[in-house]
Amino acid sequence: MTTSSTKGAHGVIHLMTETDAAGSTVRRTVRLEAAVDGKSLLLIDVDTRKPGIQREVRYEITPAELIAVTRAHGAELPGEHHGDAVDRD
Prior knowledge:
The protein has 1 helix and 4 strands. With 89 residues, it is mainly beta. It has a domain at 12-73. The chain has a 4-stranded antiparallel sheet. It is extended.
């Protein structure tokens, strides 16, 4: 018997890194990371494009809300057949 459980969100995904023209200095990063409690996700946007100013904006969303938004606004990729279960025996 196989059992599974959902323990919440974990990990970090770096979505975007913007550097200067030389590529030596990071000017902006956007990442998606799990909150410490694992119950929500944080979209963190760190912007240092203006000299001397660092702006950090955080947005919070639950994994269920992110899944719902993706399903509502995303596009299913061609060749994906989720929900088209076919018995091939």
